[in-house]
Amino acid sequence: MNPGTVRENRITEGVIWKEMLRYAIPLMVGNLFQQFYNTVDSIVVGRFVGTNALAAVSSVMFVILMIIGFVMGLANGASVLMSQRYGARDAEGTQKTIHTAFTAMFFGGILIAVVGVLLSPAILRLIHTPAEVLPDATLYLRIYFLGGPVLILYNVGASMLQAVGDSRRPLRILITSCIFNIILDVLLVVVFSLGVAGVAIATLAAQALSAFLAIRALMSDDDIYRVDPRKLGIDVPTLRRIVRIGLPAGIQQTIISLSNMIVQGYVNGFGAAAVAGIGAYNKIDAFVIMPVMSLNLAATTFVGQNLGAGRQDRVKTTVKTVFGLGQVITITLSVILGFGCRYVLGLFTKDEQAVSYGLLYMSYLVPYYFILALFQNAAAIIRGAGETFVPMVILISGNCVFRILYLVIANHIAPTIDVTLACYPVTWVATGAAMLLFLWKGNWLRKFQREAQRQA
């Protein structure tokens, strides 16, 4: 294939449910491996270092998710624009998008690294991290922040590949980095006894390997999205569009993660066993949410490319397919988790008190996962049309503002662990109702149609 050509596009031409599975399954497997090597960090420190070490790694999770969420939001903006331009066969626009995204996000990663390293102790004290786990938590978080630039480069590279319909190479990259991370975890913690620092260094090294492989893949292709280091730079109009689409999603994820940090602050008040047990379940929780997130990436790409190609008939079929697959997968995993959670928690810790906290947390989440899947799928569909502001407002209002109000009022009345954990199902129901109503009204699609007519 000669440079500047476009491969056959199954996303805009094939049978939607088949192509969505073809696209989403590698994403699901890839995210499974990504989550697996994050989970191995917790298993290794929980089993070979101790409960306090597990609590240290667990206590920083929402801080890390806040950073990753912001990065993924901006990468999603670039991915939406990329999918629309690639779907429209716009070679020049595709080139501007990929090179602008890489350049801008790399410098953003450097900023995140500097600020994160400096503010890690203050952040952990702000969320009332137990004193016995604070030193290890600070060390782990600082090492993780140092990997900010490579974390961002990988996420941008993967999102660009996924935007053009390639979900297989990101999968192979994740499998490779997962194996590498697990080997380093065991080597640095079990053999060299580096403790929490060992798993943090292993994670940073695995992220660097992922970034290198993603960039190499994009530089080796002959399609119109090929990366050329000589073209790296910022096209201001393209950057504005990326920010306009991606910033709301980034802010949304940051603020929602901030609300989860506040929840973590309340949990920290119940001691290291609670932090360890609930943190361990959060790792399990990610495996249930992961297929939905993979479907969301597929939904955004399918909606974006089909709208860019003028195939609005396929958008409606995409919506039905995403909701159907999302519910089947989520309900199946919820049932499996309900029966097997105790055994999985036992992999993380031998502390029975920590396990009991994890099981309590599970009982508040499992019955409501189907609602979480519904509104997350709806938000991804809407973002595919370039409408990110309203989903941001809905998700921030429900999963952040309402959640914080609930925590403050409910814990003032009854400051118990049950009251704290109930904040999740309560806010999911409210958020789901608002998001599905906006999807049903269809303003997001009409807005895209009006903008497309103006540009024509």
Describe the structure concisely.
With 456 residues, the protein is mainly alpha-helical. It has 17 helices and no strands.
Polypeptide structure, described:
The protein is mainly alpha-helical. The chain is built from 17 helices and no strands. The radius of gyration is 21 Å and the shape is globular.
Features:
single chain, mainly alpha, 17 helices, globular
SSE layout:
Layout: H1 16-48, H2 51-59, H3 61-87, H4 91-126, H5 134-146, H6 148-163, H7 168-191, H8 195-220, H9 236-268, H10 272-308, H11 312-348, H12 352-365, H13 369-384, H14 389-413, H15 417-421, H16 423-441, H17 443-455
Write down how many β-strands occur, each being a DSSP E stretch of 2 or more residues. 0
Distance between the termini: 30 Å
Structural class: mainly alpha
Q: What characterizes the major β-sheet? A: none
Number of helices: 17
Residue share in helix? over 70%
Mean pLDDT: 83
Query: What form results from the Cα inertia axes?
Result: globular
